Amino acid sequence: DLKALFDFVRTSLTPTGSDSWKGPVLLVDDLGVLLSLGASPVAVLDFIHYCRVTVCSQLKGNIVVLVHSNEDSEDEENELVVNSLCHHSDLILWVEGLATGFCKDVHGQIKIIRRVSLELTAEQDRVQIYQYKIQDKNVTFFARGLSAAVL
């Protein structure tokens, strides 16, 4: 039962008389932890739904959720949560390694999916793909095939 966790989130983000929250953001570091602790996928999705209603609709804020996914994974409960979250999200940042394997100059790629189809228009979702390299104190992003090693 995640009701106690939701109550904690709601009371923590709801402004008191002197507070003036302007668009609070709820960050959920790893939603899969709730599944590994024994929560059912339905309970996890209900928790996120109630958080969305409170944070996004009532408080005019945003929710950022990290979930791990693997195409080869046999964890059906996690994949159910991932697919449901993707279906209900406005913006998806999908980070993955390179399909071709390891490269010392390119560490992976990020796919940015802006879900305009949620707005009930005939437009397709906008997808942008960038590759990245992680350095000591920052990350460098570049268009696919345009890393310094290739040019």
From TrEMBL:
GO annotation terms (biological process): tRNA wobble uridine modification
Signal peptide: none
Protein's recorded name: Elongator complex protein 6
Family designation: Belongs to the ELP6 family.
Biological source species: Phoenicopterus ruber ruber
One cellular component term from this protein's GO annotations in UniProt: elongator holoenzyme complex
Pathway: tRNA modification; 5-methoxycarbonylmethyl-2-thiouridine-tRNA biosynthesis
Pfam families: ELP6
